[in-house]
Amino acid sequence: MPEKLIIDTDPGHDDAFAILLALASPEFEVLGLTTVAGNVPLAVTTANARRVVELAGRPEVRVFAGAERPLLRAPMHAADIHGDSGIDGYDWPVPARPHEAEHALDFMIRTLETAAPASISFLVLGPETNIALLLRRAPHLADRIRRIVVMGGGFFEGGNYAPAAEFNILVDPEAAAIVFAAGIELTAMPIDCTNRTLTPPSWIGDFRALGTPIGAACAGMMEFFQANGNRKYGTATRPLHDALAMAWMIWSELFAGRQCNVEIETNSELTRGATVVDWWYRTDRPRNCLWIRDCTDPADLYRRMFERIAGL
Ligand code: RIB
Ligand code: CA
Known about the structure:
Helices cover 37% and strands 17% of the residues. It is of the alpha/beta class.
């Protein structure tokens, strides 16, 4: 039976690749996409989620809009990385269908209420606001959740949007603290792993050579994401952070990590959003998170990802 999956997302170039990979993977049944303000404002992330499912030829996949701002703090966006559209680099058509009228939280709760124990998984690709709100509003439904996989955090690598914080956690540290303390099976795909797992130089040409809308969109997105990233990070190619979190769900054998205690800094102005990883077990705090540190074969990983997305 395919694993039932809800993808919470703020598309975002790397979110788009993660969604395409999920929809191309028979191991998973995507029950719906829930959107959150993150890379760009909520209205844009929501329209982008519709654009990506329609590009994938899966217009029936429902998109539910969620939180338009973090729990406590002012919204923070990353148009400097993703452009104003959030998925710059391709001439996206206007979505053919609207997103659902039902709020993301109501969709999540309704889904969990009728679910068997430990049967619904969550892939969280943006600030964790929606998941935190779910856990606060329906704690009695936490036992219906099979596992949570988040793209977020950084420890050995430092931060990418503050010196000590990765973007998804920095935007809503209080939400991340709630999710990391929930006691639900949790895996984090941090920039410790993603920043060292870059796309192959041939990718853009390989996607363009497909001669399909998927190929054109993926090539265009990578061209923008790569050029922009090159200016900021100096790397020739870029890590598809969110797609690597989805890839771990499919091919965990290509990754290495450690079950650790991970806590979120929410008070310090200097290090707010830091993911503090007890990698060497210096405390007796609960080992609440599988912290992924390495991809053991990036070339094989991205080859497998390309083949699945190209086959959509
Ligand atoms: O730091 C990378 C993360 O922040 C990715 O999920 C990217 O899409 C942005 O949301
Ligand atoms: Ca994202």
